[in-house]
Design brief:
about 350 residues; alpha/beta; UDP-N-acetylmuramoyl-L-alanine:D-glutamate ligase; four-stranded mixed β-sheet; 10 helices; about 30% helix; globular
């Protein structure tokens, strides 16, 4: 691989995240919030940086105090912020989150006129995608213009300059006027993607054809119940372009699907769950770091699983991403990354 100035650039959402201080309380009973930062690409950037990668974030923030808050945090985390647009006519995004273990984590997005949706082709040009080894795209950036066109341009630049592309399928139902358009956008970008990462629900959402397949109780549900045949959907995704599809399975770990029909299960690290929000981003940061080190996909996914297990024990997302040394200490107490549990390839 030719020498590049940077390891990774992530593209998409960024926000201030207000997390409930009253863990276990119903949302309407929350008395106070802790101010963190978030947004899937931001979380991944911070996670990969803490592990040791040289990372930039391509997003937009408002020319406001929230934007300053986000930028100040990123600079402390050694994430390059030169690629972040300050947009006067838009507001930095915000998310408000409840924490009700073990399985309720309600969240509300405030993304009207979101600055990260105002990233333009010119911002991508200024970011110099050709200087990176990897581009990670968050699919929510495809929901509106001008960020949608900016994503397609970034993908063109990455493909032209031999930059590996990772797509985080990142389905947030309330960010799409028609959930079917989410699938249309995903399927449009898949031919330009090397590795796709998603949960089973996200993969079903990327392939759904009929809105009746989706059960959305109200507008603030970002992970609705979606009906469909997961194995068929997985094959549709993997045949649409990517060389690799990684399915995140929570406490069960992850499964790697290869274009030639092989699949490989990668076990997780059982822990007691406090907050699942951000676990998928932690997985991506660990996987990407391992991949950039030249590790095989199994070992990289094991590191991703370890990062996810670390974060679900914490109240926050980006703020609680692990540093390399503490993560490896955690891993060693649980048999290491490659232990004796490594499974052989399976064929469909």
């Amino acid at each position: 691989m030719e020498n590049k100035k940077f390891d990774l650039i992530t593209f998409g959402r960024s926000s201030i995240d207000l997390y409930s201080q009253n863990i276990g309380a119903d949302f309407i009973e929350i008395k106070g919030f802790d101010a963190f930062v978030g947004g899937s690409p931001l979380n991944i950037a911070v996670g990969a940086s803490r592990l040791g990668a040289n990372v930039s974030l391509l997003t937009g923030v408002g020319d406001d105090k929230i934007g300053e808050f986000i930028l100040a945090f990123l600079k402390k985390q050694k994430v390059n912020t030169d690629t972040i647009a300050r947009i006067k006519a838009a507001r930095s995004s915000a998310v408000v989150l409840g924490i009700e273990p073990p399985d309720r984590f309600p969240l509300v997005f405030y993304r009207d006129n979101a600055a990260d949706s105002q990233v333009t082709i010119d911002d991508v040009i200024a970011a110099r995608i050709d200087q990176y080894r990897m581009l990670e795209i968050s699919a929510t950036a495809l929901n509106v213009e001008p960020s949608r066109s900016a994503v397609f341009y970034a993908l063109e630049q990455a493909n032209e300059h031999h930059v590996d592309v990772v797509l985080d399928i990142d389905f947030r139902a309330d960010q799409w006027k028609d959930v079917r358009s989410f699938g249309l956008m995903i399927r449009a970008v898949l031919p330009k993607v090397k590795i796709a990462i998603g949960t089973e629900e996200e993969i079903l959402a990327a392939t759904l054809e009929n809105a009746s397949q989706v059960n959305i109780e109200h507008q603030q549900i970002s992970a609705p119940e979606i009906k469909g045949n997961i194995e068929e959907s997985i094959q549709k995704i993997i045949q649409a372009g990517p060389e690799i599809l990684i399915v995140k399975r929570g406490a069960k770990g992850a499964t790697i699907y290869y274009k030639d029909g092989r699949k490989q299960d990668v076990p997780g690290f059982p822990v007691e769950i406090l907050n699942v929000l951000g676990a998928g981003d932690a997985f991506a940061s660990g996987f990407i770091y391992g991949y950039l080190q030249g590790w095989d996909l199994y070992k990289a996914c094991r590191l991703g699983n370890a990062c996810g297990a670390w974060v679900v024990q914490k109240p926050g997302c980006a703020n609680d991403m692990p540093y390399y040394d503490e993560l490896m200490a955690f891993v060693e107490t649980r048999g290491g990354l490659l232990g004796n549990e490594k499974e052989s390839y399976q064929h469909n």
